[in-house]
Design a protein that fits this description.
The structure holds two protein chains of two kinds. Chain A is an alpha+beta fold. Chain A has three domains: 174 residues, Sandwich (Immunoglobulin-like), CATH 2.60.40.1120; 152 residues, no CATH class; 118 residues, Jelly Rolls (Sandwich), CATH 2.60.120. Chain A is 21% helix and 30% strand. Chain B has a single domain, classed as Immunoglobulins (Immunoglobulin-like), CATH 2.60.40. Chain B has no helices and 13 strands. The chains are: A alpha+beta, B mainly beta. At the A-B interface, strand 6, strand 8, strand 10, strand 12 and helix 3 of A face strand 3, strand 4, strand 9, strand 10 and strand 12 of B. Strand 10 of chain A pairs antiparallel with strand 13 of chain B.
């Protein structure tokens, strides 16, 4: 009797084990597992719902024309019923995958992860899209836990849906992480064609449907705006406000700042900026570069930002045709973006007969631009470009002239003043050991904007050389009797981090420091109380050996 | 209760600041409890290209049904054109503030625009006021103003989270074809 009960219990357990199984990733039960393991070539295509812009780009996203695009270069895992990863692979550039699997029942898991491991003479990268509002979890997409059948091959095609139900995002926006990754994949391929052994540091890209244009707690989605913060990308996703997962120009622009930090050097100090602002030359170049890079990796001069209820409006900038004539020049990110794109692209337009492609630009970014002793600007870039491509000097000059920038022949912008109108103050004042130099600041371009620090004239630049190592004192003081407060930052070499800085209140600041032989650059900013001064002043900078 | 939303368009070329108390039912909350004042700015990160304007804001965290003061200041270096400002609750029926379209004339020496009003809500949580700024030919900027009401849960949604050898993953279902 005991044996019968035991057998009955055992049979009951077997039925439970082979019966309906709740896969935590699936909303419904899955089929009973087949009896025998089989060896199958499992293959298929991974796609995502891509939402284009309406014609012309100015009327937002077009949910009536969703198409399926391949998910390229992402990791794919084949997982058995016990939760074990039995195979790993990657999709190719058409979204296809194929593995040989021996199992009874498996599911296909697609990770929002672009990955290529390090190996000699090959590029490597690791980009993941994660949810900053849900424990920084990596986004993955699962197919069903299903039997492999009794044939030698099986096809499983998976698609990431947009979540759009006709009027709103009514279900999970599975496609969003893959739409973001697809732009990064394009960027990686562009860089690798220029440098086959490019090594990209791992990068997290944070996206969530809760990511919104508010400041506060990132774990709640309050990320302010889409941006690269020096360590990670954050991308907006709040519907009916501002979503960026389908705004390829924005993804590419922000990834461009990552590219700059990885391969080149950016002295860009950030802050609020617009395409027609009169900006600090470092900001103008950094943001202009971002705009151009965005178009270069996509081969598309349009930058489009979808916004508003049902993502029905857009902000559009065309690098080829938007002249932004109000403030052309070396302090305009609009001008810089157009110059860089014109140097790259195949279209010939007014003043542009050059098509250098990306490889030559990349070579500059990883070399001369990265190591320049001056602050990174259009001056450093064009000087290096002409030095490395002297046969194109006249074409390069024609492009810069089309943006009201006279021929550039050195990294310091010699002959130009640190303002839109001529003044006695050169862009860089030259300082010599044992001497002083006076500069008069011009604040006419600062305007009433709260973000004045990154505008033309807020920072003033000084350069000097040290030929004998030792202890030196560098000082800046007000000499017009005003109470304006100068602060300064000192740099050298290829780093964009200051080796010394002063931010003490008062009408004078100084540092005493050991300086080695080399070229140095200073950025001086003047405060009036807590704000950047909008009043001009006169200052003396002195350098002496102790 | 479904809130009635009225879209109001204000076009005043000499509009320099707006206090929108008349647009909402002002509650006399002299003794209201303010748990904290949220402050924020749109310019604290190096963000994507957009309209050259900065938005600073303050909003009071108050109880359900109590009016919260919201103070917004828009600063811009632009000196020509019309600054269009659309202000609306991001989710309908969460905040009792009507959608508004405001226009400010930009000129030299006049680049700072305060907007002050009160909102309240019958629901606990974090609510947002969506602010869209635009100047023709200059660009657009979208900012969301958070308004905390009552108890605000910061509990993280752990739905569909798995621990794997890749770390924590957020799982979604694919549309699948098996053949």
């Amino acid at each position: 009797m005991m044996l019968k009960k035991s057998l009955l219990f055992l049979v009951t357990l077997v039925f439970i084990a082979c019966g309906e199984y709740q896969d935590p990733s699936q909303k419904t039960s899955i089929e009973p597992e087949q009896n025998n393991s089989v060896t199958v070539t499992l293959s298929g295509k991974i796609t995502y719902d891509f939402v284009p812009f309406k014609s012309g780009g100015r009327a937002g996203l077009d949910y009536n024309n969703i198409s399926k695009k391949p998910v390229r270069g992402v990791m794919v895992e084949i997982i058995d019923r016990a939760g074990k990863i039995v195979k790993k692979t990657k999709t190719d550039n058409l979204g296809h995958y194929a593995v040989t699997v021996t199992a009874k029942q498996v599911k296909v898991r697609v990770l929002a992860k672009l990955y290529q491991s390090k190996s000699s003479a090959k590029a490597s990268w690791d980009f993941e899209v994660k949810d900053n509002t849900n424990r920084n979890a990596l986004y993955v997409m699962d197919g069903k836990m299903a039997n492999l059948g009794n044939k030698s091959t099986q096809t499983r095609n998976l698609n990431a849906s947009s979540g759009w139900n006709g009027t709103r995002y009514g279900s999970t926006r599975v496609a969003a992480p893959f739409a973001i990754l697809d732009v990064i994949y394009q960027g990686v391929q562009k860089v690798v064609t220029a440098q086959s052994d490019a090594v990209f540091s791992p990068l997290n890209v944070f996206w969530s449907k809760k990511n919104i244009g508010a400041s506060g707690d990132r774990s709640l989605g309050q990320i302010i705006t889409s941006h690269y913060d020096g360590t990670a990308l954050y991308i907006l996703g709040a519907e009916n406000s501002d979503t960026d997962e389908y705004d390829a120009g924005i993804i590419a622009h922000e990834w461009g700042h990552y590219y700059e930090s990885q391969f080149s050097r950016a002295d860009n100090i950030g802050g609020s900026h617009g395409v027609d602002d009169m900006l600090d030359m470092r900001v103008a170049f950094g943001e202009g570069f971002g705009n151009a890079f965005s178009s270069i990796i996509r081969d598309d001069p349009l930058y489009i930002d979808s916004i508003d209820t049902r993502q029905s409006s857009s902000f559009v900038v065309n690098l080829e045709t938007d002249n932004g004539a109000r403030h052309k020049g070396w302090y305009s990110e609009g001008s810089i973006g157009r110059i860089l794109y014109d140097i790259y692209d195949k279209n010939e337009d007014t003043g542009d007969t050059l098509s250098l492609g990306f490889a030559k630009l990349h070579h500059l970014f990883i070399g001369a631009e990265k190591n320049t002793p001056a602050f990174t600007s259009i001056f450093t870039f064009i000087t290096a470009l002409k030095a490395e491509n002297p046969e194109y000097a006249s074409e390069i000059d024609a492009i810069t002239l089309s943006e009201d920038i006279q021929a550039i022949n050195d990294i310091y912008g010699t002959g130009r003043a640190n303002r839109a109108s001529q003044n006695a103050n050169p862009l860089y004042s030259s300082l010599f050991v044992g001497n002083s130099v006076e500069l008069v600041t011009n604040t006419s371009a600062l305007g009433a904007s709260a973000s004045a620090e990154n505008k033309l004239g807020a920072y003033n630049f000084v350069k000097f050389k040290i030929t004998s190592p030792g202890s030196y004192t560098l000082s800046v003081r007000t000499v017009d009797g005003s109470s304006l407060d100068p602060d300064f930052f000192l740099y050298t070499g290829a780093s964009n981090l200051p080796i010394a800085q002063t931010e003490e209140p008062g009408t004078s600041d100084s540092i005493s420091q050991e300086l080695s032989v080399g070229k140095y650059r200073m950025a001086i900013i003047i405060y009036d109380g807590a704000d950047v001064s909008r009043v001009s002043g006169r200052f003396k900078i002195t350098l002496k050996k102790n | 209760m479904k809130m009635k939303r009225i879209k109001i368009v204000l076009t005043a070329t000499l509009l320099s600041s707006v206090t929108l108390m008349a647009m909402t039912a002002k509650v006399n909350d002299a003794n209201k409890v303010v748990y904290e004042v949220l402050e924020g700015s749109s310019s604290s990160v190096k963000g994507k290209p957009s309209l050259n304007a900065e938005v600073k804001y303050k909003s009071q965290h108050v109880d359900v049904g109590v009016s919260a003061d919201v103070n917004i200041t828009i600063n811009t270096a632009l000196t020509k054109g019309i600054l269009n400002v659309n202000l609306r609750p991001l989710k309908e029926n969460r905040l009792d503030v009507a959608e508004k379209d405001l226009k400010f004339t930009l000129r030299k020496g006049k680049n700072s625009f305060p907007i002050n009003f009160q909102v309240s809500s019958q629901e606990n949580g974090i609510h947002y006021i969506n602010l869209t700024l635009s100047v023709k030919g200059e660009g657009v900027k979208v900012v969301a103003i958070p308004v905390n009401v009552g108890s605000v849960s910061k509990k993280i949604d752990n739905k569909s989270i798995e621990k794997t050898e890749n770390g924590v993953v957020s799982v979604s279902s694919a549309e699948e074809e098996i053949k």
